[in-house]
Design goal:
Helix content is 0%, strand content 44%. The protein is built from no helices and 11 strands. A hairpin with a 6-residue loop joins strand 4 and strand 5. The termini are far apart.
Length: 124
C-alpha cells in the first residue's frame, strides 16, 4: 500500500493549508486513516483521524476547532483542512492507515502504512 501525502508549505500565522493523503490501490474509505505530525526534537503525535465506514472523526485537543478531516471516497483521498495555523503547528505531517484498523487509534505503532510526510511551516 502506497500513501501519497501532499499539500504542505510555508504559511503565515492565521493562514490555512489543506493536506491530502491519496492511495491509488487501497480502500481508504473502509479503514481508519490518521494524520500524525512530528516537530523537531519531539515525538510523533496524533493530530486527527477518520474511522472506516461510519466516518467518525477524532481531533487532538491542540487542533480542535481549527482542523477538519474529511474523506473523498471517489478520489480515494483523505484531506486535512488546517485553519488558523499557529507556529506550534510547524511539523512534518504524515498520513497513516492499516488494513486491521476500522476504528481510530492514537498509537502510531498500530499503523503499518505511512505516507512520506509533508512539511508544514508556520512562520511570519
Amino acid at each position: 500500500v502506497q500513501l501519497q501525502a501532499s499539500g504542505g508549505g510555508l504559511v503565515q500565522p492565521g493562514g490555512s493549508l489543506r493536506l491530502s493523503c491519496a492511495a491509488s490501490e487501497y480502500a481508504l474509505d473502509y479503514y481508519a486513516v490518521s494524520w500524525f505530525r512530528q516537530a523537531p526534537g519531539k515525538e510523533r503525535e496524533g493530530v486527527s483521524c477518520i474511522s472506516g465506514s461510519a466516518g467518525s472523526t477524532y481531533y487532538a485537543d491542540s487542533v480542535k476547532g481549527r482542523f477538519t478531516i474529511a474523506r473523498d471516497n471517489a478520489k480515494k483521498t483523505v484531506y486535512l483542512q488546517m485553519n488558523s495555523l499557529k507556529p506550534e503547528d510547524t511539523a512534518v505531517y504524515y498520513c497513516a492507515t492499516d488494513s486491521l484498523l476500522l476504528e481510530c487509534r492514537t498509537d502510531p505503532n498500530e499503523y503499518d502504512y505511512w505516507g512520506q510526510g509533508t512539511l508544514v511551516t508556520v512562520s511570519s
